Each structure stands twice: as C-alpha cells, then as structure tokens.
Amino acid sequence: MTATDRSARLLVGLLAAAGAAHVVAPRQFDAIVPRTLPGSPRAWTHASGVAELLLAAGIAVPRTRRASAVAAACFFAGVFPANVKMAYDWRHKPAPLKALAWGRLPLQVPLVLWAARTGREATR
C-alpha cells in the first residue's frame, strides 16, 4: 500500500467516524448549526452526517476518489461557519473548552488541503 492509499484511507476513517457521530449522537452538533440556516438544526446535523458518510464511501472507491475528495474539500470549507459559531458561543466557557473551540478553526485549513491533495493524487 502506498502513502497515498494510506492517506486516503485515513481520510475515509475520519469522515466515516464524523458522519456516524452526527447520526448517532446528533445533539452536540445541533448546537453549532448556524441559526441563519432554514429548517431545524437536527435536519442539518443529520444531512451533514449522511454527507460525510457518502464522501467517505466515495473516497474509499478508487474510481470515485478524485471527485469525492474534491467534494470533501468543499464540504470541509462549507462547515467552517459552524466552527466559527461554536467558538463564538463558547467564548464564556472555561478556558480549556474555549481553547478547544478556537483551536478547531485553524484545523479546517489542513482538512481542506488534505482532501484536495487526496483528489489530486487519485488515479484517473
């Protein structure tokens, strides 16, 4: 197995775990759904979980890896507002929780880059 394949498998694992968490334990994610989105936070939580599971499945299959990884990069960029909302909402929490919330913000950049690189490195 190549380093590229290992990286893709790790990305699949991350997305699958996150997707499962959104579906199995949605309450924690409901709170960070931006209020400006139409519909219920639970619907957005479940939809994002299903999207993560579908992206994981797409990246797992070499034939669909390129398109799915590019879509994952877009997805990671698209959920950034939820992380901003979490950081804002947690501004009065104890320092460790506040640090966790603010620490998530710069982590989106490597996730976007990782998914984009996985798409670029996928075999055609």
From TrEMBL:
Superkingdom of the source species: Bacteria
Protein's name in the database: DoxX family protein
Provenance organism: Streptomyces enissocaesilis
